[in-house]
Specification:
Strand content: 5-15%
Order of helices and strands: HHHEHEHEHEHEEEHHHEEHEEH
Structural class: alpha/beta
Strand order of the largest sheet: 1-7-6-5-4-2-3
Largest sheet: 7 strands, mixed
Length: about 375
């Protein structure tokens, strides 16, 4: 456990569901409360003061993504970013994994409905993810982009973004959903043209938080189909005419976001930056190693990659001859919160997760044999 980081949280020891939702820190909760309290006492300075949180959050997200604020925009969630990207492609084929989370399917399906990008679905090997070889085999002249998750939500498979960039070449777009990785996995985000992330999972900022980082190639290629009134030049000039889209990532802005959620995101990103992604990642890897041994020793079948270089903070498994719902009940008795699927279970610890969590999982799985 990363003690200095863990001190900011009140999450129960057995909570192992960060890939679904990350309970926010006291810092994020306090930032939210302060913003709400200030809004309740509004005067002529309140709105402008609250809006400063967006700039702070954007700057920190940009630094963590290895870019600058001109290439970064806050969004209410990762899905909004994916729709911006999908509807912004003027035509051509986009490679996307069939096994990805549905939020990464529907933007491409809607783009196809509108006669823009056409998805070509990739089928990774069981337990695997999108690899350079899989992409190379599917490439053709009409492919204009590849869309992947940095970390697979089912198994924790970590995509090799640098190798994917090399595989597709410099002219195709690499679009990355980073929601299962950003802030907890050190990855070469600059290899991607579009990086989108929501803050409600590993960043622990709460719902309605997120951002996108765009490369120069993305800004040049993607059409600003969803640009709103806050994403144009001369935002404060209300003259009844259509203004051109902003020249930078601001063109992905549709309207003003909540300064309350922006304050929470700013606080959450600050925690990540201060404690470093490398330290957070190392602490999570320690817990994943422990949990892997616990599951294997009690007869479980691991579905996640076993190579540390190819996995992130997710451990998916099954218990032979045991329905996942039955296993989940045993885990709940021990105060453990997993993700429960129809065919498997998923454990996802964070840097604040104590060793006690592994002991609780061990007790729960041992009880299945009694």
């Amino acid at each position: 456990m990363l003690t200095s980081y863990a001190a900011h949280f009140d999450t129960p020891a057995g909570y192992l569901d960060f890939a679904r939702f990350g309970p926010p820190s006291r810092d994020a909760v306090a930032a939210t409360a302060r913003a709400m309290e200030e809004s309740a006492r509004a005067d002529h300075t309140t709105v402008d003061g609250l809006m400063r949180a967006e700039g702070i959050a954007r700057d920190t997200a940009a630094r963590l993504a290895g870019t600058d604020s001109g290439h970064t925009v806050l969004l209410p969630n990762a899905s909004t970013g994916m729709f911006h990207a999908a509807l912004g492609i003027p035509g051509g084929v986009v490679l996307a994994p069939r096994t990805d989370f549905p939020a990464n399917h529907y933007p491409w399906r809607r783009a196809a409905d509108l006669g823009r990008a056409t998805p070509r679905w990739l089928t990774p090997a069981p337990g695997g993810g999108v690899t350079p070889d899989l992409v190379r085999a599917a490439l053709s002249d009409d492919v204009v982009a590849v869309s992947v998750s940095a970390v697979d939500f089912r198994t924790g498979f970590r995509a090799d973004l640098a190798a994917l960039r090399e595989a597709i070449g410099p002219d195709r777009l690499l679009i990355v959903d980073a929601i299962q990785a950003f802030g907890v996995a050190a990855m070469p985000w600059d290899a991607a043209d579009v990086v989108v992330a929501g803050g409600q999972k590993w960043l622990r900022a709460g719902w309605a938080t997120g951002f996108a980082a765009l490369s120069d190639r993305a800004l040049e290629t993607l059409q600003p189909v969803l640009t709103g009134w806050t994403g144009v030049e001369d935002v404060g000039l209300f003259d009844g005419t259509e203004h051109p889209p902003a020249p930078d990532a601001r063109r992905w802005s549709i309207t003003n976001l909540s300064p309350v959620t922006a304050a929470a995101l700013a606080a959450a990103l600050d925690l990540v930056e201060r404690h470093t992604v490398a330290a957070i990642e190392a602490a999570i890897a320690t817990r994943i190693d422990e949990l892997t041994e616990v599951v294997k020793e009690r007869g479980g079948h691991i579905l996640s990659p076993t190579d540390p270089a190819r996995r992130a903070g997710v451990l998916s498994f099954t218990m032979p001859d045991r329905d996942p719902s039955v296993v989940a009940k045993s885990l709940h008795v021990e105060g453990v919160t997993p993700t429960v699927r129809a065919d498997s279970l998923r454990l996802s610890p964070h840097a604040s997760t104590p060793r006690e969590a592994s002991e609780r999982v061990a007790a729960a799985l041992s009880s299945l044999r009694d």
